[in-house]
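Backbone shapes recur. Consider a single case.
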Amino acid sequence: MATELTRGMQAPDFTATAYDKKQINLRDYRGKPVWLIFYRYPECPLCNLHLSTVCRWYSKPENKALSILAVFESKGNLFPYAMGGKALPSFPLIADPNRELYELYGTQARISALLAPSVVTSLFQAFGQGFKQGKITGKLTQIPAHFLISAEGIIDQVFHGKTVADHIPWKTVDAFVTKPRRVRSNSI
């Protein structure tokens, strides 16, 4: 098992393949803060409900100061089924069928996270917005995880959900986006 990642640690670097076959290297995002999100699988209605909210949030110009990387435990060819067949996000969707990034970042899975009553409420919300349960191509018990990473590559916030429908509070993300950034100076 990987070392538990905490605030103040260097975010582990990785290279992965996005949905569009582009290579994504976390190191390439230095200089801009990153929101790294771990979902379950592309046809998960709970994941798509949250992903659609992230897309609406990210469409606001003031939130473009942040780079978003979303990881799914599936092969890249399944991403057209994400978002209920709606337009895919403008940020990278990363395929991690072998769970290498999930392990690297110490994500969690628990059967109790699937059985919480709040999951049923979220499922009804997802179904009400047109997100259907599709093919399960990952761990059904995978819990969402979120990492807010500074422009210098340091972990600022770590969030592991309590259930399969639990995500980082929006106030935490908004505070991270509006957080004053240190400007590097070349002067002596």
Notes: Residues 15-178 form a domain with the Glutaredoxin fold (CATH 3.40.30.10). Residues 52 and 83 are 7 Å apart (CA to CA).
